[in-house]
Design a protein that fits this description.
There is one protein chain. The model has no long low-confidence stretch (mean pLDDT 97). This protein is an alpha/beta fold and 321 residues long. Helix 1 runs parallel beside helix 12 and helix 5 crosses helix 7 (158-167). The strands form 2 sheets. The chain has a 7-stranded parallel sheet with strand order 8-7-6-9-10-11-12, sandwiched between helices. 34% of the residues lie in helices and 15% in strands. The structure holds (2R)-2,3-dihydroxypropanoic acid.
Length: 321
């Protein structure tokens, strides 16, 4: 009998996921959720046939060279910008991700950030907790309207569509910017426009596009200056799409009204300015963080690994060519 393939799971996962994988793999896993230095990851991965990684694990030529037996990388994330797909393809390493299972939870979070930012929920809560609420006033904590305004969605894939679907309940005009026309734009009542037009017109801008070299700093000083001074910006996609330094400047100067951010350049480190500007809502990359969504992600990564171990087609492969 062939020995079971060797799998490394780089982060703590739910017990049912380990149970699902155990019959098929000889498992080494980081169930203590220790913060591994890069050298530890490379050493622990060195004799593995399979890796279960997350978005903070960089799978690059260095790691691939350190793992000569590696045949599959399953990431517990829908995003795969941390994986060098071309390098995986060259070495015959297959890759999978976790689409769909997090779509609705992530779209909910986009709305949570949009609403909290527009209506200044966190700013006013901090003020209240600081004991500063002495009396009610007509002009206290005035925020931005959401109902009946214009929503601009940058990136109209699964999550962008789910964000747009929710906007119907708010009777919003929906503009989107995407490389290709969304096949469901009529159903969503969404209109495709150039990025500059979207930035000029939208009262609320939500970023849901994948990160790549082409989308690095897609929202920088020029784009922020194009937005309405009353507009809000939400990023639930990836750090690096927004130039965080330019955003801090724009928020400080009142060039836009506020921002709701779940992702950051260099996270978990934050641009220090983000902690000092009041009109920003900050969450720690929790867009998909509901139990059902996170279990779904980890289980889908496991199903891809089981398919690999049993010679079946991967349920959600990522093209590496
Ligand atoms: C994803 O799935 O890409 C989320 O950002 C979690 O990493």
């Amino acid at each position: 009998m062939n020995p079971r393939p060797k799998l490394l799971i780089t982060r703590k996962v739910f017990p049912e996921v380990i149970e699902r994988l155990a019959p098929y793999f000889d498992i080494d896993s980081n169930q203590d959720d220790d913060e591994w230095p890069r050298a530890t990851l490379l050493a622990r991965a060195a004799d593995r046939d399979a890796l279960f990684v997350v978005a903070s694990d960089r799978v690059d030529p260095e790691l691939l060279a350190a793992c000569p037996r590696l045949r599959i990388v399953a990431t517990g994330s829908v995003g795969y910008n941390h994986i060098d797909l071309a390098a995986c393809g060259e070495r015959g390493v297959v890759v999978s991700n976790t689409p769909d299972v997090l779509t609705e939870a992530t779209a909910d979070m986009a709305w949570a950030l949009l609403m909290a930012t527009a209506r200044r929920v966190c700013e006013s809560e901090h003020w209240l907790r600081a004991g500063k609420w002495g009396r009610w006033a007509f002009d206290q904590w005035l925020g931005a309207d959401v109902y009946g305004t214009t929503l601009g969605i940058v990136g109209m894939g699964r999550i962008g569509s789910a964000v747009a679907r929710r906007a119907r309940g708010f009777e919003m005009r929906v503009l989107y910017h995407n490389r290709s026309r969304a096949p469901n734009e009529a159903e969503l009542g969404a209109h495709r426009v150039e990025l500059d037009e979207l930035l000029r017109e939208a009262d609320h801008v939500v970023l849901v596009l994948p990160y790549s070299a082409a989308t690095h700093h897609a929202i920088g000083a020029r784009e922020l200056a194009a937005m309405k001074p009353t507009a809000t910006l939400v990023n639930i996609a990836r750090g690096g799409i927004v130039d965080d330094a330019a955003l801090v400047d724009a928020l400080r100067a009142g060039r836009i009204a506020g921002a709701g951010l779940d992702v950051y350049e260099n996270e978990p480190a934050l641009h220090p300015g983000l902690l000092t500007v009041p009109n920003v809502v900050l969450t720690p990359h929790v867009g998909s963080a509901t139990r059902s969504s996170r279990v779904g992600m980890a289980m889908l990564a496991a199903e891809n690994l089981v398919a690999f171990a049993t010679g079946a087609a991967l349920p959600t492969p990522v093209a590496t060519a």
